[in-house]
Amino acid sequence: MTGIADLPLHYGHVPDYLLKTMKGMCDAIVHTMLYEYGEDKLLDRLSNPLWFQALNNAIGMDWDSSGSTTVLLSILKQVIKPKDGIVVVGGKGKASLSVKDELMSAKSFDVETDKLVEYSALSAKTDSVLLQDGYNLYIHYMLVSKTGRWLVIQQGMNPYTKYARRYHLLDVDNFECEPNSAITGINGTAINLLDKGVDETRKVVLEEVNNSKDKIIKDYSKALNTLQGNTTLELFEKSAAISGFDRSKRIEYYRPISIQKLKRNLEKIKNDSFSNLSDSLLGGLTASTARAMFLIADLIYNEPPSFLDPVNYPYDPFKYAFAIGGKDGIPYPVNRKVAEEVIESMKQIVMNSKIEDKNKKRSIYKVEKLHRLVNI
Fold first, then answer.
1. Which of 112, 92, 85, 87 shows the shortest CA–CA distance to 102?
2. Please, which residues have CB within 8 angstroms of residue 262's CB and are 6 or more apart in sequence?
3. How does pLDDT run across 272-308, given as a tens digit for each residue?
4. pTM of the entire structure?
5. Where are any strands of DSSP class E within 247-291?
6. Residue 344 and which of 125, 164, 201, 249 are 20 to 30 A apart at CA?
7. Sequence-separated (6 or more) residues with CB below 8 Å from residue 313
8. CA angle, corner 313, sides to 311 and 318, nearest 5?
9. Three-point CA angle 270, 179, 198, nearest 5°
């Protein structure tokens, strides 16, 4: 299972004494995992948003906080070194842009750095351009094994709902169609060109991107005229497929951009003969320009994008997040089948890890407490 997790925004920071304990516990658990199963298996486990959350809780972090991603990934970057068979690069904010430089410095790894940098960029572009769900990316980490396997974990924040959404992409070979194979979160609304059911729309959008700039402007003007002068897409023709403005969540999922801005954006696109959408993303296709293409595809060519949030495991995070405890100390039940598998693997790893007895008992207690909850 790889995919997405929704997490509410929590303020504050982890106390230094607890952070030190969490780092020690994570170090022991992760290195036990590496010793027992190897680096590729660790990437597999971390690509599962529920296992990721379980590890987060086993070391003592909040069970449902947006900060769990920041804290756990930061700790993983500190405790995992290239000699362990994995390099962890990236970070939060500006640090997320350091992927290329950090990969270049991992000289002990015989990996294709340029390709990995491309995969990193495509992961970010895919979940912000082809999928526009209201979450602005601000965390981007990449974990690469010495065998060349890779995992991107990134997170976006919705400024209106104050929820964060975490995205997991593992060894993706197709960034255009459902790269997040299993997605867990709060089902909402989105402009989704990643849906497998809109292949024709993807073709139309690619054709538009490859059109002359004058043709794109002409088609976009025609689409805007179809809206009959509306400033938003709430009150337009009933036959159109656009979802418009979702007032209940205060998110603008589909809003036209000005002709002037579209012209400026088109000038930045580096090519006019892309063979696929992934190339166009790397070539300069932005989120607002993509929305213009979606509008054209819908209103001119009758090929709308999907407006389904790509959630196929629709659990409220207050129910599915691994309630093993943490500094909040509030347990909640989770999906039983998935929980049983993760609990047993986590319990075994914690038991085998070199953590001092006090902290080991603390983690085991939390895992067993969750085990009892799952079977209530």
1. 87
2. 216, 217, 220, 288, 289, 292
3. 789 999 999 999 999 999 999 999 998 889 899 998 8
4. 0.79
5. 251-252
6. 164
7. 1, 3, 182, 183, 184, 185, 320, 335
8. 100
9. 75
